[in-house]
Write a structure and sequence with these properties.
Blueprint: E1 21-24, E2 31-34, E3 40-44, H1 47-53, E4 58-64, E5 68-72, E6 78-83, E7 86-90, E8 100-102, E9 105-109, E10 113-114, E11 121-125
């Protein structure tokens, strides 16, 4: 870089691109980026989420689909219709759950996020079908199904 393009002594150049959240599957063949913020993270205790995650609940981050983009592997994603018009998406190589875009929302498996997204879980849903051996030990609101719209 020539001296004419350097900042004056004692000054630093900074570049702010805004929030950027990235994530990928376990093997790395599917990767994505969110150029915005996450609206909320929920813990879902429904039977399907428990089974797809192999855990007592699924953790999902929700954001605006227009701020989301695939970095690689989109064409290889496998979709499974777990109930009418509800799809679970996963990497065909490693089996990791990957984001699902529905209308204007993207639902991201929170475990696939690289780093700290800056948002913490705020609600438990479908606790009416939670694993009987799991006790919820936090003070987050709990709902037997979907919460009322004002809490969602």
């Amino acid at each position: 870089m020539g001296s004419a393009t350097r900042p004056p002594a004692g000054r630093r150049l900074t570049c702010t691109l805004g929030p950027m959240i990235t994530g990928n599957c376990l093997c790395g063949s599917v990767a994505w980026q969110l150029d915005g913020t996450i609206d909320l993270i929920n813990f879902c205790h429904c039977t399907m989420c428990r089974k797809i995650h192999g855990a007592p609940f699924g953790a999902f981050a929700h954001a605006h689909a227009n701020e989301f983009r695939w970095l690689r592997g989109e064409s290889s994603i496998t979709r499974f219709e777990s109930s009418p018009n509800v799809f679970r998406c996963f990497c065909p190589n490693c089996g990791s759950s990957v984001p699902v875009i529905e209308d204007d929302e993207v639902c991201v498996p929170a475990g696939s996020i690289n780093g700290d997204p800056g948002v913490r879980p705020s609600i438990h849903i479908f606790v009416g079908s939670k694993a009987p051996w799991y006790e919820i030990a936090d003070a987050l609101p709990q709902h037997d199904g979907f919460p009322p719209p004002e809490e969602w």
